[in-house]
Inverse folding.
């Protein structure tokens, strides 16, 4: 277990491009017409990950907690715009609502893991905070955008039910309770499914990475468990905040549905 | 029969449903009074603004300009949820929630934490609603999704009546029914209105329904309102 990762040079990466060449060959001979997409995807993968690699080297060298927090907050902004793009029809204050919920959900869960769980000053360095934070934000973004789109489409398709409940004296919060629940459930199902089969069919990314870099598989497993919990925690906090804030946008303070938004 | 609702210079504008979002004037400077404890009908051709007008009574929407008074008090001065419990509303297309017909009728009792109604009072109200004979008692235990449109519409009416409102707003309650079934339902509603002295305000575009039910009639045409005297003669 002592030996570290086998060094992979850029030349080796070039050799691995052989796989893509084989793919393009197959696709071209079958006339499936995805050659261009494969080339664009390959180029983007190389450029984006290379930049990320160089950027992380830079961030690790600077190693300032404020700089790390600033990066995480900027990642939150990108996540909020990405999530808004996935909701078919924009809603008022979408960016603040999504930013607040995704960032708070992710940073809460990241703080919990690095401060309470790992409880080691080393956990509060860029080497831990950036990859863990990225994972938290990325997964929270996926959950929140699924939930937001489901919630919006339910509001649109079931406005008859919602207005009826309002007409019977229900608050808007009570009138949409059922739809908040179904949005949450729909967004959590992929996470729960992956919790059910984790390790059985494939070894998840973090664990694979640690095993490849020579880490004890038991430590790798413990990391993976904590990360799974971090993802569940981040999504849950973000959705609890986000769905409540989002619901508010669709109603006036007098519990009237804003029909122009639906 | 005193004034129950008073509309004072009420206009309503909204963006049209097309993509250009142009603001259109749906109701124009409407002023009228509706008396209580009788059967009133708001009538006019489709698209004249009748349903929009009905939504203003219980503040599902607010007018762009003008004021509405309920029992002499501006409706904005009532806590909105309390106003809606006093002003029942039955939409054009019946809404069915999961569970039995009785679950649907009991639904309003579970919606408010502040105005918790004791269980024996709820049971008293349910047997009173059964006693109205609007819906056969055996249907109360049937799943709401399994009853016919006419039965679902009756269920919607009973649900609106469960909170014992002062007035019920009916938005084209017979529009999904054929002529004969529509008449049956309307005559039942008229009978219940007479028996209970409930105030009813119904929106309808059918002339025969206006003749049958309208003790007090408001005509809406191109967003403007004219009050007719009872049973047809113009004021």
């Amino acid at each position: 277990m002592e030996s570290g990762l086998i060094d992979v040079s850029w030349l080796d990466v070039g050799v691995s491009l052989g796989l893509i060449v084989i793919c393009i060959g197959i696709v071209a001979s079958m006339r499936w017409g995805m050659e261009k997409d494969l080339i664009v995807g390959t180029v983007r993968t190389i450029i984006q990950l290379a930049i990320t690699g160089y950027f992380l080297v830079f961030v690790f060298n600077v190693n300032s907690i404020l700089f790390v927090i600033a990066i995480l907050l900027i990642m939150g902004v990108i996540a909020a715009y990405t999530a808004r793009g996935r909701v078919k029809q924009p809603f008022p204050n979408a960016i603040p609502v999504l930013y607040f919920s995704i960032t708070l959900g992710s940073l809460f869960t990241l703080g919990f893991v690095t401060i309470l769980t790992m409880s080691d000053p080393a956990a509060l360095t860029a080497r831990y905070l950036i990859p863990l934070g990225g994972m938290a934000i990325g997964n929270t973004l996926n959950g929140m955008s699924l939930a937001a789109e489901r919630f919006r489409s339910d509001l649109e398709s079931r406005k008859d039910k919602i207005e009826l409940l309002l007409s019977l004296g229900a608050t808007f919060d009570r009138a949409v309770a059922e739809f908040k629940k179904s949005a949450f459930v729909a967004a959590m199902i992929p996470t729960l499914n992956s919790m059910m089969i984790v390790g059985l069919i494939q070894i998840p990314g973090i664990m694979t990475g640690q095993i490849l870099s020579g880490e004890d598989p038991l430590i790798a497993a413990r990391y993976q468990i904590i990360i799974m919990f971090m993802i569940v925690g981040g999504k849950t906090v973000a959705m609890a905040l986000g769905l409540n804030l989002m619901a508010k946008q669709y109603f006036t303070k007098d519990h009237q549905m804003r029909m122009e938004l639906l | 029969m005193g004034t129950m609702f008073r509309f004072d210079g009420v206009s309503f504008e909204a963006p049209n449903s097309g993509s250009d979002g142009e603001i259109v004037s749906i109701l124009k400077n409407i002023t009228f009074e509706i008396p209580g404890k009788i059967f009133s009908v708001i009538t006019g051709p489709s698209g004249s603004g009748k349903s929009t007008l009905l939504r203003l009574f219980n503040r599902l929407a607010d007018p762009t300009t003008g004021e509405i008074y309920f029992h002499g008090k501006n409706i904005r001065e009532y806590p909105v949820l309390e106003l809606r419990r006093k002003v029942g509303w039955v939409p054009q297309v019946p809404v069915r929630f999961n569970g039995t017909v009785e679950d649907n009728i009991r639904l309003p009792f579970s919606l408010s934490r502040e105005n918790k109604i004791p269980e024996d009072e709820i049971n008293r109200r349910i047997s009173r609603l059964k006693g109205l004979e609007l819906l056969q008692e055996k249907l109360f235990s049937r799943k709401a999704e399994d009853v016919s449109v006419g039965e679902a519409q009756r269920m919607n009416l009973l649900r609106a009546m469960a909170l014992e409102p002062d007035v019920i707003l009916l938005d084209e309650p017979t529009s999904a029914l054929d002529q004969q079934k529509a008449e049956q339902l309307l005559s039942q509603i008229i009978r219940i209105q007479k028996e209970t002295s409930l105030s009813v305000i119904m929106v309808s575009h059918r002339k025969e329904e206006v003749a049958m039910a309208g003790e007090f009639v408001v005509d809406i045409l191109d967003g403007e309102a004219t009050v007719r005297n009872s049973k047809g003669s113009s004021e």
Observations:
- Chain A has two domains: 1-62, 64-261.
- The mean pLDDT of chain A is 92.
